Amino acid sequence: MASLLEIPNDTTPFPALRVPPPHTEFTIGWICVLKDEFRAAVSILDEKYDTAGLVRAQGDRNHYVLGRVGMHNLMINLPPADTYGTGHAQTISINMRSAAPSDKHDIRLGDVVLGTKVVPYAHGRETDHGFEQTGITRTTPRELLELITFMDERLWWQKVSLSESIEQIRERTDRGQTAFLRPTRDRFYKASYIHQGSVCDCLQPESQQRVNLYPRKDREVHPVQVHRGTIGSDNHVMKNALRRDYIAQKNNILCFEMEATGVMDVTPCLPIRGISDYSDGHKNDDWHPYAALAAAVCARELLLSVSPQIIAQFPVTIAGNTLDRYILGAVSNPSAFAGSEVERLRHNRDSLMERHALLEELMVAKLRKMHNIHPDDMEDARKELQDLKDLQNTLKIHLQDLDRIMRQHDDLLLSQDPAVREEYRNLKSQVQKDAEAMENLSEVAQKSLQTTCRLLIQLGTDTGNLH
Ligand SMILES: [Zn+2]
User: Fold this and answer.
1) What CATH number corresponds to the domain at position 387?
2) Spacing, Cα 219 to ligand 1 middle (Å)
3) Which of 178, 309, 398, 450 is deepest in the core (most CB within 10 A)?
4) Where does 265-340 have alpha helices with state H?
């Protein structure tokens, strides 16, 4: 992984890295789009694991860094060098974006927005009565939102402010001290003051246009604040203050970005956004590194506020051997790639079914064992089988998601290219068969679980939760 050389860290070489724990202990997937975000993500790790022996799923061209924050093991993807095009823009997740401040929300550069909802504001159609939004609003799962409460509590009890945590992380590395320095210039212009090209006030060392700046109170004690609310996510860069205000007001949007919708289509997630500009014509890149670090540190605080057991209880938990599938799914979101949809869809299907094949192997072995099991071991075996079945259920849901996404691509059946038509038709029937195979396995497991429960009741054993 040559690209790992780009990771900023102490000038001293890394000490020997530990071999990562088993795959099943990685419960957090962290997806970065830009290099600044990746560097910020790596800088918040307490430990980095040796990834030399990491085996990637077939067809997966991404690189990953495995690491630990507190008691959580996580997997961070490395954005391909300098490919910031739309193809990759469909990925996620903890990164920096454009704010939409308003009278209600005093959002500033370097602040963090936690997305409770994601609105694809530009999806829709022009009608006689104006623009009609048709995109599906996605809501962050309640379980993930609860993490925020844990974090609030932690920060409150420990009297820690996010800005202090950011400073601590920044000072931890030689590179970070300069790379992630907080910029001093934060000017929020009135929407009426449009960017003036090379002579604009936003480029001057001292503002001459104070009259055109929104008056704001100083924020000396806690310069970084965390906001929660709706994120506007679509295929557009928001760079127009009037449109920003119009859309933000209509949808109660706190910030704009381009990734969350793509990822939420594939997997539930909690978008965490560091604010790096005001979605207007004065936008520049100065705040990117700091905003990325602010979002990463906020994610770190969230993780430190909950135990791995709590994460493991979530229905949206990313089980170890499905983690790369989630990331793959996000990276390969079919809608992001024009021209090679079939290939992408096939890739998603293959990767999903590869996971399922592994799971099937485990389930079948377990089912065989259930036939002549000693009564003392029965309850344990039942629980293990139930866990596998739950995991399989998650994969079933993902296959249904894929099927749904594929239906949006059914125009491929009418493609000019006969090879594309043929390939897509085959893929569709394949996914149909996959779904049936999954269902069959699920039914067999269900029967075995029911039989075992009956036996356990006959034996007078307390079975706990019967499914
Ligand atoms: Zn300007």
Assistant:
1) 1.20.58
2) 23
3) 398
4) 288-304, 308-313, 320-331
> Do residue 303 and residue 338 come from a single domain?
no
Per the listing, tokens 């090379």 go with: 198
pLDDT in tens, 244-293: 998 999 999 999 987 777 667 666 678 888 999 999 999 888 999 999 99
- Total domains, the chain: 2
Q: State the residue range of the domain holding 377.
A: 322-466
Calculate how far, in angstroms, residue 284's C-alpha sits from the geometric centre of ligand 1: 9
Report whether 166 contacts 297 (CB < 8 A).
yes
Q: Which of 312, 342, 361 is the last residue of a domain?
A: 312
CA 212 to centroid of ligand 1, rounded, Å: 11
Q: Which residues contact 454 (CB under 8 A, 6 or more apart)?
A: none
For ligand 1, the distance from its centroid to the CA atom of residue 121, given in whole angstroms, is: 25
Considering only residues 333 and 409, tell me which one the structure prediction assigns the higher pLDDT. 409
- Distances 292 to 91, 221, 426 between C-alpha atoms, Å: 15, 21, 43
Distance between CA 318 and CA 326 in Å, rounded?
A: 8
Q: How far is Cα 216 from Cα 221, in angstroms, rounded to an integer?
A: 15
Look-up: residue for tokens 């691509």? 409
2-57 per-position pLDDT tens digit: 333 344 444 445 567 888 887 667 777 787 777 888 889 999 999 998 877 665 55
Is omega for the bond preceding 305 within 30 degrees of 0, making it cis?
A: no
